[in-house]
Design goal:
Radius of gyration of chain B: 23 Å
Structural class of chain B: alpha/beta
Low-confidence stretches of chain B: none
Distance between the termini of chain A: 48 Å
Shape of chain B: globular
Number of strands of chain B: 22
Mean pLDDT of chain B: 97
Number of helices of chain A: 17
CATH architecture of chain B: 3-Layer(bba) Sandwich
Radius of gyration of chain A: 22 Å
Strand content of chain A: 5-15%
CATH class of chain B: Alpha Beta
Strand order of the largest sheet of chain A: 2-3-4
CATH topology of chain B: FAD/NAD(P)-binding domain
Shape of chain A: globular
Largest sheet of chain B: 8 strands, mixed
Largest sheet of chain A: 3 strands, antiparallel
CATH architecture of the domain at 29-164 in chain A: Orthogonal Bundle
Number of strands of chain A: 8
Order of helices and strands of chain A: EHHHEEHHHEHHHEEHHHHHHEEHH
Helix content of chain B: 10-25%
CATH superfamily of chain B: FAD/NAD(P)-binding domain
Number of domains of chain B: 1
CATH class of the domain at 29-164 in chain A: Mainly Alpha
Mean pLDDT of chain A: 89
Oligomer: heterodimer
Strand content of chain B: 15-25%
Structural class of chain A: mainly alpha
Amino acid sequence: MMKIFSPFGAAGLAVAGLLASGSAQAVDSSFSNIRHGKELVDAGDCVSCHTQQDGGKKFAGGRAVETPFGTIYSPNITPDPETGIGGWSDAQFYQAMHHGIRPDGKRLYPAFPYPYFTKLTRDDVSAIRAYLNTVPAVKSPPRAANLTWPLNHRVFMRGWNMLFFTPGTFKPDPNKSAEWNRGAYLVEGAGHCGACHTPKNFLGADKTSQALAGGAIQDWFAPKISGDLHDGTGAWSVDDIVAYLKTGRNKFSGATGLMAEVVANSTSKLSDADLHAIATYVKTMKPEKNPPPAPPQARMDDPKMKAGAAVFADSCSACHGGDGKGTPGLFPPLAGNANVQQHDPATVIRVILDGARTVATDAKPTTSAMPAYNWKLKDDEIAAVASYVRNAWGNHAPPVDPGQVKAMRENLREDHASGS
Amino acid sequence: MAKKLPAKDVVLVGFGWTAAILGQELTDAGLDVLAIERGAWRDTSTDFAVTFAQDELRYMWRRALFEEPARETVTFRNAPNQEALPMRHLGSFLPATGVGGAGVHWNGQTWRFLPTDFVARSHNEQRYGPLPADMTVQDWGITYDELEPHYDRFEYLCGISGKAGNLKGQLQPGGNPFEGPRSRDYPNPPLDMVYGPTLFEAAAKATGHKPFPCPAANMSRAYTNPLGVEMGPCTYCGFCEKFGCGNNSKASPQTTVLPVLMRKDNFELRTECEVLRVNFDAAAKRATGVIYIDAQGEEFEQPAEMVIMCAYALHNPRLLLLSGIGMPYDPKTGQGAVGKNYAYQITSGVDVFFDDKILNPFVGAGALGVGIDDYNGDNFDHSGLGFIGGGYLACWDTNARPIEHHPTPEGTPKWGGAWKKAVAKNYLTTASISTHGAVMSHRNNYLDLDPTYRDIYGRPLMRMTFDFTDNEHKMSDYLTDRATDIAKAMNAREVHAKKRTGHYSIVPYQTTHNTGGAIMGADPKTSVVNKYLQSWDLHNLFVLGACAFPQNAGYNPTGTVAALAYHTAAAIKTQYLKNPGFLVQA
């Protein structure tokens, strides 16, 4: 059977055919395969984690990745034979990508998202390797992780894998369109969207029954991106999602925080066809099977809401508008904004405290930004205004407690002190 | 010994409006462009965030965005027979420093000059006879029609809010009927008008004038400019002039060009570096680059194929003098052109005190107002008036900032209980009509290097010799009287005219519209640059900005400064790069 999804659409079939006729063991270093590998590396946003911030050499690793269990430093994946992966065979590389196992037999931590990469076809993994072989080799020794028990023992990962990891290449759904399957392959595979957007259990594994329902990460809340109307992508058209991923901006929102990096390094580089496929797939993701009951909308005559409305009028309405409609494309509308209505208010609190800056892309070069209010508003004022924007104009989401603001304030202080 | 750096195609000296425009245009043409800016990097969301941008004490009174006189200033005198002294505190004008230049802290009043302004000598002599011998007014060597497409580009870059008065020769109701013909309307409608200016509008109409909403670089709605840069609607906060805008609502290099320009691989910016002089070759035909000094005090030689001076109007002529380019102007002989025809503007105001009208003047924007152009340029018959030129009258609602804005009627004590009472009574109920008059150039108004005082780098300061002449006083009095006529028709309790009298003083703030010193023209003997702002001496040196104005018109200069910059950029792209050399034969 022909593959019903293809890296290049129709043109890609020829490439796939070419690969199939070659050796499965040797890396195909043809231009087309390297180019295909680059597209997958872009889709996987490998460069973000495998490059130190502020001028690190590309793919040389060393970037600190904060997890709830401690800090992991990304390894060097340049072809340097000693400190990178230049000494790995193609089969060893596939074993790492597909099984999460290093050449020395030790288990990788799932901060490296092999539970997603396992879905990649063998040919695609070979293409990724072919591309990584072309990046300049950098000598940069790996840095040891700093994890808490029991995750500081890699052997523990054997049990973790038994519980939470099922290796296996993506299986297309013959009842769905080629585009949907392409989207599913990218989202569940290379794109590893759920690594942030799917909630995690107490050991950091995806709650697979709640795929893409939103997840806490590094003092952000990566919002729900399944097709729910209230707090997911239900109100966004496929074109809205494509615009967001391609340009970092649409009329609802602008990419900031970790997603700004994803747009800059990954999604803005994908083809329109792939972005369209991703959007098509994401929108069909079922809303949660057992969603928590919608919280009652807070009453606007509640003193806390009144206090929030006053803070909003003073500090927020100039950009976001008294009616919460903002200036679409520049200052996001808050009315109906899914990100504002996530059940976990981490992002709302964080953005008010710390400010935020949207990513600039060639298509949307204007950086719009929200200033920090951490020096200007107290915890109870931020709690009030956050509760207000989560419940004004028809929005509804649980109110925010000053204690949550205080905790976030402390977390951010620590984050900034540690340079992350 | 300056360390020699690898050559660039283009060096821009300074990084305000003109440099942003040239940088954008010339990088589009594929050139490798370096801008050298003496001040710091500044970015809307970081440096002008709405949480602190509206800080009157910091920005207005403590001068956070302006040039520090301790680093560089001018010396000043009214007449050549006086000794000039350094201006140790900024006063009459406020040169900027830092990325974006004065384009960061301007109000956004964006005008086109009148077609007759560009032919001020020939037009006025033809209509009124010979000008006085000491009035060194010159034609610009360029016409309004040549500049029209470039005005248009700047207006669309900035998203100017306004109402056309003359579309391709057809007068448009509600616009300025005196303006030169424009090829299309403004990109955005006028700002929402506030109460004070509407009272002026009604009175102006009733007294036979032709009021119109003033053109504003403050956004009346969200706007995406032709470069794809997005701007937000103005919030009417009243913190434009002397402040950066945190809402992306006032056009500045930061809000219109830099998001695109700074992403380009063939553009580089070095901040906190001051250009000390321009170098040229032994034959004195070509500039070879610049010498600059960085914040560590280290000097560098930056070679370049082209040098474009984009510093403020006062600094470009000084850099020419310090570099020994061109012949310095001598007021005794009238020979030489560098430093010649320094000009300024003459302003006055009429306060209009109401009892019963709450104007809420704190709802403001930098260019929010209604104006009339009936008395600008040669829009009216000057026969028998004893002066040429004119200015616009406008009722602006730019701000009512608490430290700055204390309108009190004549006779009010300057402090104490009675003053406080008067401020409280009049703060919300006072409008003001301002006049914005031209200054014609004069033989004894000029710039040269001071023989005594030096800047922080040991270079001679610029010496400014300037005074208002009879022409200015007669004209300004005439404008003030006309403004008073209209003010009286506003049916107020009290009208108080504040005429500009006596010698020019460099102390009280008037306007940052300094012009001349490197003037453009058709004759190398009487001008520094040709119509393309290309040096008559070194063909790869261009000198931009209001220093090119042969005399000053009765409008804010930025629109014309930017139109000239686009005109220069077009000439470089379409003519100079193909055939480097003088674009106009002397």
